[in-house]
Design brief:
By secondary structure, the chain is mostly beta strands. It has 2 helices and 20 strands. The chain folds into 2 domains: 164 residues, outer membrane lipoprotein receptor (LolB), chain A, CATH 2.50.20; 104 residues, Jelly Rolls.
Length: 321
């Protein structure tokens, strides 16, 4: 009886161990082998309504979430058009460009556009130790596929200025699982984490195709500062639909600040005034595009006070799926 009891206990322990092992192996099969299929290494084919919900983390805006959505497929131009479910996120991208995966993405390689040129961020079919180059965030990158396991290709990239990117492309979810960009000082400038991948999106989708017009930092000065920028419209598409502005302001105790923008017709689409200790971090808005010269008058008083203003022209795209 005692031996039978011991044998039963041993069998129960073996069964429990087997169950626990199965719970922790994830996508690895019972032999511990890689489960990546050849199909998961290949270029995916997207459809309208495919969507990926990401959490974005940036120094300017902290943490927020938005869906990237395949809004349109343009076979003639050879591109997908990727929009985002949040209009505010689309405006942020226009003036900050913190999400390079919005807008046009080539059908033949999922290349994203920077300065009007497609950039090969991904290398299909995925192959370990494959190496290639591309431009993104104003940096020239050399990338390498470090590993491929369970359908996930892991890539690392470095630039001559010491920036680093690491990202994982999921063959089963057909887009990035994660993406991290650190600058030359090691400061994380962007992190993207995939929360869910689905198809059949229903709702509005936005994209602001933009061009930078102004990026100026105004610091403490006892006098008014005068500045200008020119709105000439898009180089090939004509007038911008709107201008998007971004403000990052910090006024020290006892200081003050003001901003006044005027177009060539004398209208004042943007005015601001700040008192002692005021802050305005990451404020974003839109103003009408009036082709021609804009003038700025800025005052910044108090040690450590500053006003950072960015302005971009934008062509606005919206789809309802």
């Amino acid at each position: 009886m005692g031996r039978r009891f011991e044998a039963g206990v041993m069998l129960l322990l073996l069964l429990c161990t087997s169950v626990l092992a199965g719970c922790t192996t994830g996508n690895v099969d019972s032999t511990g082998s890689d489960t990546t299929t050849e199909e998961q290494k290949l270029l995916p084919e997207w459809e309208v309504g495919d969507q990926w919900l990401y959490t974005f983390i940036t120094p300017q805006f902290g943490e927020d979430s938005a869906r990237l959505v395949v809004a349109e497929i343009d076979d003639e131009a050879g591109v997908y058009r990727l929009g985002i479910s949040s209009k505010l996120e689309a405006q942020r991208h226009a003036v900050i460009n913190h999400n390079p995966f919005l807008g046009r993405v080539t059908i033949d390689g999922l290349s994203v556009y920077e300065n009007g040129e497609p950039q090969q961020v991904f290398s299909f079919p995925w192959t370990v130790d494959d190496s290639w180059t591309f431009t993104l965030f104003g940096q020239d990158w050399t990338a390498t596929t470090d590993s491929i396991t369970n359908g996930n290709a892991r890539v690392s990239a470095t630039s001559a200025e010491g920036h680093q990117i690491s990202y994982t492309f999921s063959g089963s979810k057909e887009f990035m699982e994660s993406f991290v960009w650190r600058d030359g000082d090691g400061v994380r400038q962007l992190r993207m984490d995939l929360n869910a991948a689905r198809s059949g999106y229903s709702g509005d989708v936005f994209f602001y195709r933009a061009g930078d017009l102004l990026d100026s930092l105004y610091e403490e000065n006892d006098q008014e500062v005068y500045d200008t920028f020119l709105d000439e419209g898009h180089s090939s598409e004509g007038d911008w639909n709107t201008l998007v502005w971004y403000l990052d302001v910090e006024i020290s105790q006892g200081g003050s600040g003001s901003l006044s923008m005027k177009d060539h017709a004398g209208a004042s689409p943007l005015t601001r005034a700040w008192g002692s200790g005021a802050t305005e971090k990451g404020a974003i808005g839109t103003i009408p595009s009036n082709t021609g010269e804009y003038s700025l008058t800025v005052t910044v008083r108090g040690p450590g006070s500053f006003v950072h203003l960015r302005v971009a022209g934008a062509l606005v795209f919206q789809w309802t799926l």
